[in-house]
Amino acid sequence: MSLSVYQASVPLFVQILGGLSSVLHKAEAHATEKKIDPNALLQARLFPDMFALTRQVQIAADFAKGAVARLAGVDVPAYEDTETSFADLQARIAKTLAFIQSVPALSIDGGSERTIVLRPGTPNEKTLQGNAYLLHYTLPHFFFHTTTAYDILRHNGVEVGKKDFVGSF
């Protein structure tokens, strides 16, 4: 039995975004319990030239919604990147989950051979077939940003572990 593009994407995005949501809930509780300004965590980064937690979450959500939309051949929903609180980040994750779960599996599976053009019309334009786009571009980036968000919080003392990151499946 072969694995469909839908099976390799949406359930995985749902699982890991669910874990990210759980980790963010724990971070917010940690900030409250320790009387830490939430912005100290929201703007934390692992190194000065890396994105802060808020941006890591935004990008992770963007990779999930972008992949599903591109594979299904529909417009990628535009999000404004205005999140400034844990509640805002939770809303972004919820909005992303609602979108990716609303796209029919057959539409996504039809994208396995679809030509995906990233950054069209720019010097960085890249053209990939659907399967390669998902497996070699989207998933590595999605996991990089979700892992980095987790690492930022763990580094800042939030008591989370692998089970929190992985979420439920």
What's the end-to-end separation, in Å?
Answer: 20 Å
CATH hierarchy, class:
Mainly Alpha
Number of domains: 1
- Here the CATH topology equals Four Helix Bundle (Hemerythrin (Met), subunit A)
Which structural category do the helix and sheet elements fall into?
A: mainly alpha
CATH architecture: Up-down Bundle
Approximately how much beta-strand content do the residues carry?
A: under 5%
> Mean of the pLDDT scores?
96
* Number of helical stretches of at least 4 residues: 7
Question: What's the order of the H and E elements?
Answer: HHHHHEEHH
Principal-axis shape: globular
Number of DSSP-assigned strands: 2
Provide the CATH superfamily.
Answer: dinb family like domain
For the biggest sheet, the summary is: 2 strands, antiparallel
Low-pLDDT runs of 5+ residues are none
Rounded to an integer in angstroms, the radius of gyration calculated over CA atoms is 16 Å
**Helical proportion?**
55-70%
Largest beta sheet: strand ordering: 1-2
Provide structural commentary.
The protein is mainly α. It has one domain (10-166): dinb family like domain (Four Helix Bundle (Hemerythrin (Met), subunit A), Up-down Bundle). Helix content is 60%, strand content 5%. The protein contains seven helices and two strands. It has helices at residues 10-33, 38-42, 53-72, 86-102, 105-109, 130-155, 162-166, and strands spanning 115-118, 126-129. It has a two-stranded antiparallel sheet. The model has no long low-confidence stretch (mean pLDDT 96).
Short description:
The protein is mostly helical. 60% of the residues lie in helices and 5% in strands. The model has no long low-confidence stretch (mean pLDDT 96).
